[in-house]
Amino acid sequence: MFSVIRARAGAAAVAIGAMSVLAVTAQPAQAAVNPANCRFSYNLSIGRVAADCWNSTESGWYLQLTCDRFSGRPPYYVRGSIIYGSGVSAAQCDAHISEIGDLMIVNL
Length: 108
Prior knowledge:
Helix content: 10-25%
CATH class of the largest domain: Mainly Beta
Low-confidence stretches: 1-28
Number of strands: 7
Strand content: 35-45%
Mean pLDDT: 81
CATH architecture of the largest domain: Sandwich
Oligomer: single chain
Shape: elongated
Order of helices and strands: HEEEEEEE
Number of domains: 2
Structural class: alpha+beta
Radius of gyration: 22 Å
CATH topology of the largest domain: Immunoglobulin-like
């Protein structure tokens, strides 16, 4: 009895695993901008960053900055323009009250 239950559970696990692999491989390749395909330029005196990214698809993306406030208050986020395909997205922190804490490419 237990061997039958184990065999059914094992067969179910194999079937679920096979369906998971099929679901992952059946989806189209994720269209995303790889940060390695970007050139970043900085103007730290005004807190501006521009990302010039190559994207072989027409997928959307943008540059997002995390701006750390000098006052110790929580950071705020600034989003650059949304780009479809290759192009330049730029964002700027307010240099009077904050500095650039982090940046990332956000894929839509």
